[in-house]
Amino acid sequence: MNTQAILVQDANEKPSSDFAKLKPRLVQTAEDLLSAFKEVKRALWIARDPEFLRQLVTLAPGERTSSRLLLLEEVSGYRAAFLRAYFATVVAPDPQIRLVSSEVLAEILADDAPQDYFIGGVYVPEDDVLVLYRGDLETVVVPLSWFDRPVGPKPAPEDFEIIDYGQSVRLGEFEAATDAILYGFDADFRRRARQREVQEDHSFGGSLRRLRLEKGVNQNDFPEISARTIRRIENGTVTRPHRDTVEKIARRLDVKPDEIESW
Amino acid sequence: MAYTFELPPPLPAHGWKAKIRDRERLEPPHVTIIRKKNAWRFSLRSKQFLDTQPDPSEVPAELVEAITLGIDELRRVWDEMYPENPVFS
Question: Hey, what's the torsion of the CAs at A114, A115, A119, A123, to 10 degrees?
Answer without folding.
Answer: 180
